[in-house]
């Protein structure tokens, strides 16, 4: 039996990266809006929280758009390893940010 994962090996990593990016955008938006954090990215530090959230959401939409292109069917291990590495790194950063915000809000 042929599964959807066999036909689209990059589907799950692209979905995960898009969702991680949306979550990071929301955490950043709420952290900046309520004054809990400051933006550490020098490219985004001069923008408003809403602008940063908008950029993050636009980038996530671009990632989700990849799901409807031939890219999703690439069977290259290099792309798969790159996406899994990006997801692992982004997950660690997201958990770090969520932990910092939790400590600030609780304190």
UniProtKB/TrEMBL annotation:
It comes from the Bacteria. Pfam families: DUF5658. The chain crosses the membrane at residues 12-38, 50-74, 81-106. Signal peptide: none annotated. Residues 15-102 form the DUF5658 domain. This is DUF5658 family protein. The keyword Transmembrane applies. Coiled coil: none annotated. InterPro entries: DUF5658 (IPR043717). Keywords: Membrane, Transmembrane, Transmembrane helix.
């Amino acid at each position: 039996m042929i599964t959807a994962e066999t036909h689209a090996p990059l589907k799950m990593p692209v979905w995960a990266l898009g969702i991680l990016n949306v979550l990071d955008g929301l955490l950043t938006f709420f952290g900046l809006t309520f004054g809990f954090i400051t933006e550490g990215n020098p490219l985004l530090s001069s923008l408003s929280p809403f602008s940063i959230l908008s950029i993050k959401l636009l980038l996530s939409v671009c990632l989700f758009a990849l799901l409807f292109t031939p890219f999703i069917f690439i069977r290259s291990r290099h792309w798969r390893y790159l996406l899994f590495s990006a997801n692992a790194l982004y997950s660690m950063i997201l958990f770090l940010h969520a932990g910092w915000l939790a400590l600030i809000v609780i304190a």
